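Bump. Still looking for MAPEG family protein structure tokens.
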Amino acid sequence: MTPILLTIALAGLLHIAQFVVASTMANMDVGPGYTTSPRDREPSRPMRKTTGRMLRAYDNNVEMFPFFAAAVLLIHLTEQPSTVTLWTAWIYLAARALYIPAYALGWQPWRSYIWLVAMVSVATLFIASLI
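Sorry for the wait, here they are.
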């Protein structure tokens, strides 16, 4: 596996870990009866604020991960990996890892800045694939 592809694998594992943590928290808050249901109704018990934040942080990762994976795959397939693209991919991964506690703990405005670092990293990878 190339070093640039390793970042996709690690981002995928981070995604899975984030899902497990958020799902476990939701299960503890509203119970397995609700979380295993088709969720046609609102839960009978409210979720903690932190659980809601963890679920929203996960949803945000669902939106961001495909862009990152596509950008890294473009770099790999066009055989354009470089020190810059590898560092950029690692910066994305670090930003996404930091984004989770930033969201959960309500770091304002830092959460938004961390998100921006990840988005700029993805944009940089796409631009690098065109050069």
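The chain has one domain: 3-130.

Edit: fixed formatting.
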